[in-house]
Every structure is written in C-alpha cells, then in structure tokens.
Amino acid sequence: MPNTNVFRGSDASLVLAVDDNSTVEGGLADALINEYDFSNIVGRLRNVSIRIENEIKPFHEVGKRFATELRPGNINIYGTAERAHVNGALIRLLLGDGAQSPPPQGVMAQPSFNMVLNLKNPSIPENGSTLTLFGVKFEQWNFSLPEDDFVLEGVTFRAIRVGTNESG
Predict the structure, then answer these.
(1) Do strands 45-59 and 12-17 pair parallel, antiparallel, or not at all (unpaired)?
(2) Measured in whole angstroms, how far is the alpha carbon of residue 142 from the centre of its chain?
(3) Domain region containing 37
C-alpha cells in the first residue's frame, strides 16, 4: 500500500553514504563521511531542494499543429542545501584533496556519494518514505556571513539517478 502521510521538514533526516569505496571517488567520499560522521546525520540543514527534469522532445508532422508524439530525452537530477554548521566538510566533499594546502599536483578526483533523505512522521513511526540520490557530486559551494543572521554555507549538487522506497 502506498504511503499517504504528509511530512514536515522536521520529520526528515539526511545522511550520506557510499556504495563502492573501492573507486577513487568513492574512497575519498567514504573517508570524509566517516571523519565527519555523515553516515548518521548531516545536521543543521535547511532549505534542501531536489529537482528532476525529464526533457521531453515533441515530434511535429508537416501540416499538423499538435505534436503527434512525445519522446523522452535526457534526465537531469540536481538540488541545493544550506547548512548552519561550517566545518569544512562540504567544501572538502566538493574539492576532495584540492581543499588541502598545498593542493596536490596533477589531476584531482572529486568525491562521489549517495544522499539518503528519510521521512518519518513521529506519530506514525512505522510509515515512512526514503529518497536516495545516487552518484552525487557537489557542483558549487557558497558561504554567507550576514551581519544580523546565522552564518550559512550552501551547496548545489547533481546526481546520476534517484530511487524511492516506502514503508508501512
């Protein structure tokens, strides 16, 4: 039976994981995820958004105004997140060894990992939804130092694919 619960942002938790730490990208991410304990919870997140775009290509026949066929094109998965805890973890997940000083010479691998978003309504704990983004790489990192508000860092990311799971 499909999950029909409604959720709030406070019902969510976000963790990072690595499927294959035998690759250079997975190994880098695994070391950082373990160092910052992101396999339990990333923490202090807000404004997490995930977007999936499925490019649709319409085919128009000569003499017809409406499309006669819609063909699927590329699928793009991306999103953003803000975090109120600046400790270097997210920038290291973006730059890998490039965040060290001095940076390594030559080609640098970028960490690749999975983002797992768990939603559970505390009043119905046996029902929940999980959204997993696979092959995530951070695309941009930004830092905000406002005069009268919380210090925030933010990231934009891309993913290779997405999966869902429901319980209850």
Answers:
(1) unpaired
(2) 16
(3) 9-55+71-167
Count the neighbouring beta carbons within 10 Å of the beta carbon of residue 79: 19
Query: Do the beta carbons of residue 86 and residue 153 sit within 8 Å?
Result: yes
Determine, yes or no, domain membership for 79.
Answer: yes
Query: Residue 107: inside a domain, yes or no?
Result: yes
| Number of domains within the chain | 1
Contact assessment for residue 151 and residue 145, using Cβ atoms and an 8 Å cutoff: yes
CATH number at residue 29: 2.30.110
The model's pTM: 0.89
Q: Residue 146 has which token pair? A: 């406002």
Closest by alpha carbon to 73, among 92, 99, 52? 52
What is the rounded (10 degree) CA torsion for 147, 153, 154, 160?
180
Per-residue pLDDT of the chain (168 residues; tens, 9 = 90+): 677 778 888 889 999 999 888 999 999 999 999 999 998 888 889 999 999 999 999 999 999 999 999 999 999 999 999 999 888 999 999 999 899 888 888 889 999 999 999 999 888 888 889 999 999 999 999 998 999 999 999 999 999 999 999 987
